[in-house]
Amino acid sequence: MAKSDGYAIGFIFNRKKRSNAPELIENHNLTLDDFNFKEVKNTCRPAFLDPGRKRVFCASLGLDNKNHRIRQCTMKEYYHMTGSTRYLKKKLQQMKANRSIDTLESSIPWPKTTKVEQYSNYVTYLLRHIDQFFFPFYNFDTAKDRFHLYQGRQRTADNMVNIIINGSSNYNKSKRKNLQKNRKKKKKKNKNKNNKNISKG
């Protein structure tokens, strides 16, 4: 089975049934008694994760009670890495304003109610505007943007794992210096391009 929104395509396959033969991993019954503190301290780098509401995770690295590193990723940083905040602020809001979708969405009646009349007003309002405004706006034209946002979510998951293992620019000064160098290089390139365009004009 294949699904497509006009930009990306996805395939659904039937999962193969598992065989009755036991796998190798099922034969290993590891417990805490099988690990030694010295072995874990010398060979492993344990990380203790704590999810929260304002943070995606807060990790404590190491086994030392005094000198242990703390790394975290807030919800604001997560949405910035996915690119959804920049997309909502710049592109989506402009598209809604050009088609007056923002005014229509802001005047939608509140659906979370126990009153039948208020909920019926919500349903009639949607049915009145859905074919003329909402369906033409949320069609396959936004499939490209949704695909890029999906790519951003995939990259962000890898970046968060990289933050836990290697750290980011917030925790590593050498990476911070590299970012500053790259920013300076980009500024010089943009200035040279602008100067060339002005000289051509």
Per DSSP E runs of 2 or more residues, the count of β-strands stands at 5
The averaged pLDDT comes out at 76
- C-alpha-based Rg, rounded: 26 Å
Class of secondary structure makeup: mainly alpha
Biggest beta-sheet profile: 3 strands, antiparallel
**Shape verdict:** extended
- Kindly estimate the percentage of residues that lie in beta strands according to DSSP: 5-15%
Q: What is the chain-wise order of helices and strands?
A: EEHEEEHHHHHH
Low-confidence stretches: none
**Oligomeric state of this protein:** single chain
Annotation field: number of helices: 7
Q: What would you say this structure looks like, in words?
A:
There is one protein chain. The protein is built from 7 helices and 5 strands. It is mainly α. It starts with a strand and ends with a helix. The model has no long low-confidence stretch (mean pLDDT 76). Helices cover 54% and strands 11% of the residues. The protein has helices at 37-43, 75-82, 84-98, 101-106, 116-137, 143-165, 173-200; strands at residues 2-4, 9-11, 47-50, 55-61, 69-74. Strands 3-4-5 form a 3-stranded antiparallel sheet. The chain is extended and about 70 Å long.
Descriptors for this entry?
two-stranded antiparallel ribbon; 54% helix; 7 helices; mainly alpha; 201 residues; three-stranded antiparallel beta sheet
Topology:
Blueprint: E1 2-4, E2 9-11, H1 37-43, E3 47-50, E4 55-61, E5 69-74, H2 75-82, H3 84-98, H4 101-106, H5 116-137, H6 143-165, H7 173-200
Antiparallel strand pairs: 1-2, 3-4, 4-5
Quick structural gist:
Helices cover 54% and strands 11% of the residues.
